[in-house]
Specification:
- InterPro entries: CRAL-TRIO_dom, CRAL-TRIO_dom_sf, CRAL/TRIO_N_dom, CRAL/TRIO_N_dom_sf.
- The chain has 15 helices and 7 strands.
- By secondary structure, it is an alpha/beta fold.
- The protein has 2 domains: 18-93 and 277-289, no CATH class; 100-275, CRAL-TRIO lipid binding domain (Phosphatidylinositol Transfer Protein Sec14p, 3-Layer(aba) Sandwich).
- Helix 2 (32-48) packs across helix 3 and helix 2 crosses helix 4 (72-88).
- The longest helix is centred in the N-terminal third of the chain and has 17 residues, at 32-48.
- Mean pLDDT is 93; it is low at 1-5.
Amino acid sequence: MATTQANPFQIEAGPLSEEAQVIAAKELHETPENVAQSLEILRELIEADQSIHYETDDDFLKIFLRPTKFYAKSAFELMHRIAEYRDKYKSIFDNLMPDGERDTFANYNVVNILKDRDQLGRRICLINAGKTWDTSRVTNDQLLRCLYLIQLGAMLEPETQVRGIVVIMDLKDMGMKQVTALTPAFALRLIGFIQEAMPLRLKELHILHNPFVFNVAWGIIKPLLTEKTNKRTHFHSGDMASLHKFIDPAFLPVDFGGTKEKINYSGKDWLPAIDNYLDFIKKWNACGKRKLSLNVV
């Protein structure tokens, strides 16, 4: 019997749980000594670089240090990649705020994030690119903006910074309209975001109900993926037992053979949670490549 998720979605911005602290120390080298040293080095690198601007408080810098296992130089390189990506696609991401995609989240059922974590404490993000994705109402770039906003919410959670995220892409009854919307240019933007410009630990990508035409398209995309991304991508077609080898059904909705309530992919429950962190999003939007000032004499 499906259980109901009565509690509203919450962004868990509090300190790490004891279990997550153990994981962080083991997998990310997050010890007091490493943290202090990495923060100092990263702060110095940022302050010496006039080409980018980022906040430099401890919590903000840990967003970049955790996915790079507290190697300050790697975190600094990640910051540069994010700045380059956002500058390259500034027409999509400049001043991105939840209000701009509120209608997409609430009414068009394309992206959501589950209230419950999985058995490993990872966040579960859902992408609906199947039949119910109305491509005449929601463009591929709007879909990407929604994913970007969900990423910002996940970045605020120390627990998610450590444990990572899992993405489920549902392609049920995908038709030619949806396939056509997944253009090569969009694929490059999406892959660039996931592999180069997302400061989160993507642990797994699960693709459900993948039709033949998508498999053909994936064959073209696959060479663009890193070895790590390829290894973490799993195709299940309609076999939910295959998905359950990775995610316990006790943490999945009935749509995926789980025991949680049925989903409709609407993100309206998530919006009030991110609305509490608009100041953070504004600060994030102000980060990135510095604008060159021309001094006219």
